[in-house]
Structure formats: structure tokens, C-alpha cells
Amino acid sequence: xxxxxxxxxxxxxxxxxxxxxxxxxxxxxxxxxxxxxxxxxxxxxxxxxxxxxxxxxxxxxxxxxxxxxxxxxxxxxxxxxxxxxxxxxxxxxxxxxxxxxxxxxxxxxxxxxxxxxxxxxxxxxxxxxxxxxxxxxxxxxxxxxxxxxxxxxxxxxxxxxxxxxxxxxxxxxxxxxxxxxxxxxxxxxxxxxxxxxxxxxxxxxxxxxxxxxxxxxxxxxxxxxxxxxxxxxxxxxxxxxxxxxxxxxxxxxxxxxxxxxxxxxxxxxxxxxxxxxxxxxxxxxxxxxxxxxxxxxxxxxxxxxxxxxxxxxxxxxxxxxxxxxxxxxxxxxxxxxxxxxxxxxxxxxxxxxxxxxxxxxxxxxxxxxxxxxxxxxxxxxxxxxxxxxxxxxxxxxxxxxxxxxxxxxxxxxxxxxxxxxxxxxxxxxxxxxxxxxxxxxxxxxxxxxxxxxxxxxxxxxxxxxxxxxxxxxxxxxxxxxxxxxxxx
Length: 488
Known about the structure:
elongated, mainly beta, 47 strands, 13-stranded mixed β-sheet, disordered N terminus, 7-stranded mixed β-sheet, 1 helix
């Protein structure tokens, strides 16, 4: 009996030692999660922090919505310790979020992975969940620490602002054993402010630590580069302020070429730009084309993305035989612009005009012209609920070889003041815009309905006239309403 008791006691201790921990601290109050139960209001403040478990992928999904974790007590504001059931934490950030360490030993972020190396890593990821997503981190201690076999990733389209007021603590600190490996992946735009004594990245312990940045990231701080997995200046570990900018997932060019990528802090000047300006606003995910004449294709992988037009814009691509002139792999894509702005897309008889992967909304602007295209506007075969084309009052003139508008689940007209010429309707079975006889339309015009002029003199031989705001029909000497009722 005693042996059985000791066995179960040892098993309990082993399980407890390997249990995951997800810990939050705000205003000195601890919120610790050690069991896989969803909690949509962790901080008990109405839902600024939510936690949902994904057992199949061993992932804990955390959402911050304008959340603030602030404390002056010793310990971590956000802490994750892995177990075999949950190795990953993914934090989706919406709005402006803050981790504020007010105490001398308050640490904003810490992760503990498995000890002893191997292929299993604990992984903490921060990613943007909406336009304008920010993570603001400040404190007097080590700000971000990853221990043993662990990774930390700051994702694309996210802005991370870090302020260290420590006299000599590291901003990032990787503490590893002999066989462990700590990795920091920076795919975000990063702004670091320090006292000038804080090393931006360092490793601790005796194991390897890796700083992962790639060619899509640009260090704006003069003289600073990356060497031996740390930021350096004059061959010495760098201590001081740092500005690091990562490109947004928009490429301008052609498949198989070295493309130009868009950075949020500078005007984009790709090859093939004959005139005009191209800029991107990180706070709104808006790419502005201002009187652009571009002989290249635009491809984006962004949700909630808008192309906004100013002036007269032309996109063609004489050297490409495969890329749609504009393709967007993302949800909630919108094409918008100023009231007199125009966009002309030339497929050069080799490709499609517009390809939105998950639907498109064409808002109000001057005019959209698509010519010489294989397909004018092409969806994704109606494969999901979002694969819908929404139209406001932008006039369109589409000329194509195979289909003016095809492969959407449906078209939604958000106005009563536009018409198709020739008369047309969208067939969600054949996934095409068709004429009244069921033929797929290759060429079509979408224009405003012409209003009937006000007629003040009702002495008309035949036809339609308006008197006192009411439409009447004059036929065979009789005055009829639009429903055919004779007016005495």
C-alpha cells in the first residue's frame, strides 16, 4: 500500500511539474490559468483579455483588445510556461495595448520552454488582429525574457513600442542551458527607447540564442547592423534607441522577379512606376495611389485592406503573361477613392484585371475601367461566404475575352441608381454575369440610371411625363398611372 501511495504521489508531482501556466497580472492582482477552460473576460474588466484553447494544435489563443496590464509588484505581467499539451500561445492584438512594469523588478513578458534542448519549443507569438494594432511595453527590469527551448515572434503589420528605464538591464534576454536554444523573430515594426545603457538583444546562459530578421526588415538607426545574433554598432553590442521597420505584405512587380515591397514609413518607388506616388498607412491598412501610371502588378496578402485612389490612375503590365493586375489574398478588400478619381486597368490581352481572393467591395469613386483582360473581375469560385462582389455607385466599363465578372458567390448591389448595359444579372450557379438570354457577358457597362426630366407642360402627344412629382403615361389620348390605371 505504501509503495502504491508513493507511486501516485510521485506521479502527481511529475504532472504538476509539467503543467502549463498562463499568468497575467494587473494592478497587483494575479490571474493564473492552469486548466484548459476558455475565459472570455480574464481581467474581469468587460473582455479586454480573452483566452480560448485549441487542444488539436496545442495552442492557447489570447486576444487583447485595448488591454492594459500594469503593476509595480515583482514578477511577470504576462508569463507562459509550456507543457506537452500546450506548447504555443498566440496573442492577437487589436487596438493599442500596454504592458507596463512600474516596479523595479516587474517584468512585462516571460516564457519558459522545456529544459534540455530537443525539438520541442515553447512559442509565444504576438500578431496584429486589425489595422493600427500596437503593443507598448515599458519597464525598469529585463523587459522580454525567453528561457530554455523557447521562441518569441512579433508578427507582421504589428507596431511594437518599447521603453526601458533600466540603468543596465537587457531589453531582450535569452537564458539557455547547455543544450537549449532561444529564438527571437522580428517581423514587426519596432521602436525602442532606452537610457543608453540597455543592450537591445543578448543571450544568457551557455546555449545558443538566435535573433531572426530577414531582408524584408530595415534598420533605420544609422550605423546599426546585426552580427552574432545581436544588434551591433562599431562592432560592439548596441545600446541605445533603435528604429526597425518591416515591410507590409504588398509586392509590386511580377512572379519570378525581384519585387518591390511596401514600407509604412516611406514612399514606394517600384520599377515600372512612370509617374505618381504610392504610400501605405499602417493605422488604416490603406494603400493610396495618387495619379499613378504603373507598368507592374500589385499583389497583397492583407485582411481589411483598402486601395484608395486619387486623380487618374493606370495599371498595366506589358511584360507579364500571368499575374492579375491587382490581386489581394485577404478578407474585407475594398477599392475606394475620391469622387473624381479614376482607375484604368489594362490586361494587355494576357491576364485578368482584378482578382480578390475573398470578396471585394467597390466603393464610390469616379470610374473603374478594365480593358483587354482575360477576365475582368474574377472571384475565387464562390468557395466561401465572403466571396461576394459588393457594388456602390462607381461607374464601370469592363471589356474582357472570357467574362466581365466571374467566379463570385454572388453580386450585391448596394444602390438602386445603377444599371447594366446590356441588361444583366448575376447567376450564382454559373458564377458569371449574364445577359437576359443567359449568355456570359464579356463586355458590360455599369452606369447611373438616367433620370426622367421634369415636364411642366403636360400637353404631350405620347410618352411619359411628370406632374406634381407623379409619373404618368400618355397613351392613345389617355393618361395612365405607371400601374395602368386611367386618370380622369
